[in-house]
Amino acid sequence: FRIAVLISGSGTNLQAIIDAVQAGRIAAHVGRVISNRPDAGGLERAAAAGIATEVIDHRDFERREAYDQALADRLEAARPDLIVLAGFMRILGAAFVARFTGRLINIHPSLLPAYRGLHTHERAIAAGERQHGCSVHYVIPELDAGPVIAQAAVPIHPDDDAARLAQRVQAMEHVLYPQVVGWIADGRVQLGDGGVRHDGRIP
Ligand code: GRF
């Protein structure tokens, strides 16, 4: 089972997945890491783990469709069974998503369907929520709206600021994302016509 991971930043979720593969908790191989930013810290994490890396810089492309096409072509060359978006901060167009439907997942820092989009921690605090969290979902063209595979909740404390809350959520992301990737690698979760299908043994 081959995994490709797309990143834009520090790659702490990528690291959690690498660690889980190395510990034997994910029965898969991370074959490639692609970043749209040459300075993404996650590229060093990948290199340190001996994973092939590639930068496809969106600034080299005039149109979003051309970028998506280049990214899709490079990805296909790696023949991934699963493409994991891990802090990949580019919106992927409908044509790209259609090409990889059912093989494309993302982690989003909120309890979807609440707080799609950016600045989720600030918005959850401002709304007076008492709970927040993260969701792993299949990607569809509509942003952060695809079928949710699994979620994990954390409390919001009265004295929280966005940074503290983000830290608490991210610690949870690093548990949830490897777990879901492991389920998919084991064939226990799939995207069916009616949404997410799983084998019934998932907590
Ligand atoms: C995570 O908080 C994720 O939910 C969001 O971007 C962040 C990526 O962090 N989409 P990292 O690059 O995995 O450290």
Automatic annotation (TrEMBL):
The record marks 144 as: Raises pKa of active site His. It catalyses: N(1)-(5-phospho-beta-D-ribosyl)glycinamide + (6R)-10-formyltetrahydrofolate = N(2)-formyl-N(1)-(5-phospho-beta-D-ribosyl)glycinamide + (6S)-5,6,7,8-tetrahydrofolate + H(+). It holds the Pfam family Formyl_trans_N. (6R)-10-formyltetrahydrofolate binds at residues 64, 89-92, 106. N(1)-(5-phospho-beta-D-ribosyl)glycinamide binds at residues 11-13. The active site is at residue 108. Its EC number is 2.1.2.2. GO terms for cellular component: cytosol. Keywords: Purine biosynthesis, Transferase. GO terms for biological process: 'de novo' IMP biosynthetic process. The keyword Transferase applies. One of its GO terms (molecular function) is phosphoribosylglycinamide formyltransferase activity. InterPro entries: Formyl_transf_N, Formyl_transf_N_sf, GART. Residues 2-181 form the Formyl transferase N-terminal domain. Pathway: Purine metabolism; IMP biosynthesis via de novo pathway; N(2)-formyl-N(1)-(5-phospho-D-ribosyl)glycinamide from N(1)-(5-phospho-D-ribosyl)glycinamide (10-formyl THF route): step 1/1. Belongs to the GART family. HAMAP family: PurN. PANTHER family: PHOSPHORIBOSYLGLYCINAMIDE FORMYLTRANSFERASE (PTHR43369:SF2). Catalyzes the transfer of a formyl group from 10-formyltetrahydrofolate to 5-phospho-ribosyl-glycinamide (GAR), producing 5-phospho-ribosyl-N-formylglycinamide (FGAR) and tetrahydrofolate. This is Phosphoribosylglycinamide formyltransferase. The gene is purN.
